[in-house]
Amino acid sequence: xxxxxxxxxLCGGAGNVLTHHKTIKDLEQYYSxxxxxxDVKEFLKNMTTDKEGILHLFPWSGIINENFELxxxxxxxxxxxxxxxxxISQIPPKEExxxxxxxxxxxTIVKTAEELDVxxxxxxxxxxxxxxxxxxxxEMMRKYNTKKAIVFNTYQCYLKDAFQEVTTDLEQAKRxxxxxxxxxVRGAYIEQERARAAALGYPDPTNPNFEATTEMxxxxxxxxxxxxxxxxxxxxxxxxxxxxxxxxxxxTVRFAIEKMKEIGILPxxxxxxxxxxxxxxxxxxxxxxxxxxxxxxxxxxxxxxxVLPYLSRRAQENKGVLKKIKKEKQLLRAEIVRRLxxxxxxxxxxxxxxxx
Length: 356
Ligand SMILES: Cc1cc2nc3c(=O)[nH]c(=O)nc-3n(C[C@H](O)[C@H](O)[C@H](O)COP(=O)(O)OP(=O)(O)OC[C@H]3O[C@@H](n4cnc5c(N)ncnc54)[C@H](O)[C@@H]3O)c2cc1C
Known about the structure:
356 residues, alpha/beta, TIM Barrel, 2 domains, six-stranded parallel β-sheet, two-stranded antiparallel ribbon, elongated, binds flavin-adenine dinucleotide, FAD binding, Proline_oxidase
């Protein structure tokens, strides 16, 4: 609330710093009455902007600095007195410690991914946690995605805000010159989202029906493809945007392939990849791989006592997906019969498995 109030004061009542294109000059003007104040001078000195000169108001990068106190990250001078004031409440030491530990672990994981030259995809959770996850992931992208997309954020297209979120983050990546990685999903927590919204009396954040979610998915993916094509056409590195189409939905996978063709993005460009869960929809994953697309299987990994509850939760949340197993079984049966009849029991597919 305090942050929003500050932003409203600075922007003159509406919008935010990005939409108003506020620059350091505007900020100096805002504090012109108390420009001699030592704290104000220090605050203005540390201010950074993106490559278009738009203000980067809060030191968000501080949140992934393992040696930085979260409570110190968001402090601004009062425009009348110059006294520094907190935009977030003081966090108890125990919580500060837990937050730092979490950041240290995330840094270790991402650094290891960088060393091994693999990508790391951060999952999306319920909307009441997601802003924090997304913010940390974006900061990790800014820090690590300087030469290629290593860190990927996840965007749930069942959310009414999905398109807006993706385009805002794409803009941020463009302005701050880092590689953007996104995993696009429909979203796994629709029942919890709706139940919580109804119980607490706030508007349902999810799309009204499945068709609206599909439309959101396809619109968001199209926007990413369009931007990749722009990068390609302007001679920039097309890999500045990397997308995983994480879906078991045949129409969505077909849509992605057709749009890639229509817009002019080739599988060899290695900017789009596909992902399905291990043991699910192999009839989608395998042909994609054989046709030269980067296709991945997601493998839940960990101690049995942790993985089994995870899988049973996924099964509960994705009852719809389980219906596809019926189709898969029919296809597997037909394939076994075909191989028996043709006398070719074993088959090694040849694909082009260079990752995106
Ligand atoms: C590789 C991979 C990674 C994933 N990572 C994440 C993640 O990080 N976070 C996450 O939340 N999920 C994640 N998922 C799960 C994903 O969000 C979906 O729940 C799951 O893939 C089913 O959707 P689908 O696109 O495969 O297609 P389908 O099986 O065709 O989609 C059916 C699902 O759409 C859902 N749906 C969406 N919108 C609506 C609506 N408005 N009304 C009714 N139903 C609706 C239903 O819940 C139903 O289960 C991941 C999936 C994969 C394959």
